[in-house]
Amino acid sequence: MALLTELHRSRLALLLLCCISGALGRDLTIGGRAYIQSTSRWLPLYPVPRLPSVKEPSEPRNIHLSFGDTERDIVVTWSTVSKVSLPLARFRACSAPPHQPWQLATARSTKFVDGGPLKSAQWIHRAKLLNLSSGERYNYSVSSDGSVWYPAMEFRVPNVSQAQRSFAVFGDFGLANAQSLPRLLDDVTRQRMYDAIVHVGDFAYDMPDENGAVGDRFMQMLQPIASRVPYMTCVGNHEEKYNFSHYRNRFSMPGSSENFFYSVNIGPVHLVSISNEFYFFTNYGTAQLGRQYRWLDADLREANLNRTAAPWIVLIGHRPLYCSNNDSRDCDWGARTLRSGFNGHRWGLEPLIHKYGVDLAFWGHEHSYERTWPVHNGSVVGKTSDTKTYTNPRATVHVITGSAGNKEKHAYFVDKAPKFSVFRSTDYGYTRVTFFNASHALLEQVSDDKQGQVIDSFTVVQKRHGPFGWN
């Protein structure tokens, strides 16, 4: 509430200042405070939350949520500069009477040392809140000693009796030029639109920079969003430094693969996250590629046996299998490597996703938005005159959504769109996805350049979930 109060009190003054400056799209420092400018009418200047003072090394920071093994399990992750005596999370249903005791969860703590010259250290704490009540809102807080508690926050557990689930999906989101942040904050805090945020790689630009300080500031910038809604991730190329150590240590995804590959059922959606970076950073070896491929094969096989409970299979990764940007290395050689594998046959992803009927795939890496027809092996499958509704598609639909904003700014397209491409935009923005039920999903691309206008939308109607074929 403290952050929202500050936002509301300062909104008119910030709007006036923004109008006077006439320079949207830049980050500002006013009176020693950092702000992010945007085209959001609700919040034209977003005051970036400050990190705790170095004089308070035990004070919690970088608080964020993720799903555990199920959508009724929430993992609370936070960090402190120093080792603490008793890292705890407490939680209580909002509907509970005030006198009802808090439930406590003891956090597991690990020391993380940045690989830079200063070897900056911090402690990462993870508390699991298990078997939460379906559809319930919870208050929660964290503590370093069990006596002094961080101001209470709130999250909502998805209602398992209702099929609808909504996500915001984006990638390539940085500390500088974080264009989509103010509008996402409005979506999450004021409109309560999402059951999860899905970030498809490339964080902060870059988390290891300045001996890890950029990562600390980025995670603090995300806290007003990620402390309210599970923040689900996959790894990108900008996380590579020190063998992806910041990504492996800062996040808490399901499973036991150090966040690189995992899956979780969220309502009617089987969400599968993989590392496409394994294909390109082979200096760390290729054993992890084989492990991921075998895991993905087994996971998708099992997911197909569970289509009644989770009919939609959604794959997320960082680098796209299809794109039409004017970077031929990514959209030609890189995309072909991911589709077909090394030497055109080893660990290729496209045969698997077609074999097991992956409905939607979300990628980033290209700082733009693009969506495809249902496509397989470079060819459109079942193209019609209707670009707004895909009915019972027999191949995967790919969405590239890497334009949430970072210091590298936009990526541009080749002049002539390939046959597989339906819609392209270089506007800053992000994707909203709503799965209404087992058969209908709506995807919308929000433009920050156009004041939150939905510049592309389409519906997928799939009443024949299952494998697309073996070839």
From TrEMBL:
Signal peptide positions (record): 1-25
Pfam families: Metallophos, Metallophos_C, Pur_ac_phosph_N
Record's keyword annotation contains Signal: yes
GO molecular function: acid phosphatase activity; metal ion binding
Keywords recorded for this protein, A-Z: Hydrolase, Signal
Enzyme Commission number(s) of this protein: 3.1.3.2
Domain of life per record: Eukaryota
Keyword Iron (UniProt): no
InterPro entries per record: Calcineurin-like_PHP, Metallo-depent_PP-like, MPP_PAP, PAPs_C, PAPs_N, Purple_acid_Pase-like_N
Catalytic activities: a phosphate monoester + H2O = an alcohol + phosphate
Entry similarity comment: Belongs to the metallophosphoesterase superfamily. Purple acid phosphatase family.
Listed name of the protein: Purple acid phosphatase
Organism from which the protein derives: Macrostomum lignano
